[in-house]
Write a structure and sequence with these properties.
This is Glycolipid-binding domain-containing protein. InterPro entries: Glycolipid-bd_prot_put. It contains one helix and 17 strands. The chain is mainly β. It has one domain (about 5-185). The protein is globular and about 45 Å long. The mean pLDDT is about 95.
Amino acid sequence: MNEFPAVASWRHRGARTGFEVAFFGEDERGLLARGTTTATENGESWIVDYVVLLDASWTTRSARITGRGAHGVRVVELEADGRGRWTVDGTPAPHLNGCLDLDLESSAMTNTFPVHRLRPLGDSPVAAPAAYVRAADLTVTRLEQTYCRIGARHITYTAPDLDFACRLTYDADGLISDYPGIAARVQ
């Protein structure tokens, strides 16, 4: 797997005000990403903690997400078989069939995973639907999205369901350094 730094952080800008810090490590199962995002968005403040496990092919295998906000604390646990079948809190989630990636609304970092999984990413859009976890209430939905390389460190990202498209910039570590309207890496 890619040698990520031990820690990376992003300042949220545009859609929300806040900060994200992620710690990276490996064990016999694969890459572990542990992080926290704190933010204020649309007048509401929230904190999302996450632990995500990816296998050697950069496919999401499990995640534990804890969210805190004005409405209390919520925890959601996702498990994936690596072939596109998921459970959410132990219950089968057929609406996520075919998803190999996890995308946390609260995190700029999770858009790193599909880009590594899809290597080498060509110059034609590639579909990478994801299990999408909302920041405010940890609702898990399916998010259709595409990635397309447009240069050595630039990728066009689209999420039609969110009416969103932008050009992501990745740094030498293979992490997002600029996510327009969302976040910029500061460490």
